[in-house]
Model the fold of this input.
Amino acid sequence: MIEYIDIIRVILVAFITTLILGPIVIPMLKKLKVGQNVRDDGPETHLVKSGTPTMGGIIMLAALLITAMTSGQLNSDMYVLLMSTFGFGLIGFVDDYFKVVNRRSLGLRAYQKLIAQIVLAILLAMYQSNASVLGTNIIIPFLKNRYLDLGIMYVPFIAFVVVGTVNSVNLTDGLDGLAAGVTLIVMSFFGVVALNWGMGSISMFSVALTGACLGFLIYNAYPAKIFMGDTGSMALGGAVSAVAILLNLPLILPIVGGIYVIESLSVIIQVISYKLTGRRVFLMSPLHHHFEEKGWEETRVVIVFWSITVILSLIGVVSLN
Done:
C-alpha cells in the first residue's frame, strides 16, 4: 500500500538526483561542444541561445531510472513505462547527435523518426491490449463508468495517440522551462490519479518524472543553462503517452495535455494555410513563438502556459469523478 510519504520520498529522490547530476553533466556537454543550433527562421531573440548545451534530457532520464529502480514498485507496467520513455528518448538522442555532428538545426529525417515512433507505439498498444483487464476498452472522461471498446481499431488508435503526443511534446519544447514545466504538471495529475486507483507502479513512475522535471527546471528555467533537446522532449512524450495508455485514459490527453495539442495544431494550421492560400494564420508557429512575436516576454508565455495546464489538470480531475 503506497502512502503519501512514499510519494514525497520518490519526488525528493528524483529532484535531488537531478540537482546532483546537473553540475556534472552540463560542464561535460560544454567540453564536448554539444551546443544548440537555433532555428534559422526562429525569433531573433533566440539567437543568443545558440551554443547553449543541449541533450540535457539525459539528466532527467538518469534521475528517472535511478528513482524508478529504487521505488520498490518494479513490475511489468514499470518496465514498459521505462522502455517507452527510454525508447523514444533514444530516437531523440540519435536526432540530437546528428544535429550536433552536422552543426545544423535538423537531425534525422522526418520519415526516419516517424517509422521508429510508430514501431514503439504499436508495441505499447499491443502490450496494453493484452495486459489490461479492460482489454481494448478505454475510459470516457465525464461519463462515469462508461467505456469505449475500440476492438480491432485499438492498436492503430493508440499508435496515433502515442505518436501524436510525442511529437506534440517535442513541438512544445521551444522556450526555457516550457516543456519541463507543463509535463511536470501533467505527470503530477497522472500520479494522483494512479495513486487513487491503487496503481502503485504507475503512480511511482509519474511522480518520479515529476521530481526529475522539477529538478531540471533549476537549470532549464529562463535563462536556461541547458536544453533538454529531442533526447528529453521525445522521452517526456513517450512517458506521458505511456502512462495515459496504461491507465486506459488516452482520451484525457487532449484535456490535461491541452497545451501540447494547441502547439501541434498551430503548426498544422500554419502549414495548411500557407500551402493553400500563401498566408500565415500565426505570426510564427508553434503557438508560443506567435506570442513572442506579439511582444510577450518569454517568461510570460511560459507562466501563462503553465497556468493553463494547471487549470486543465483540475478539469481532468473533475472529468474522472
User: Anything to note?
Assistant: The chain has one domain: 4-252.
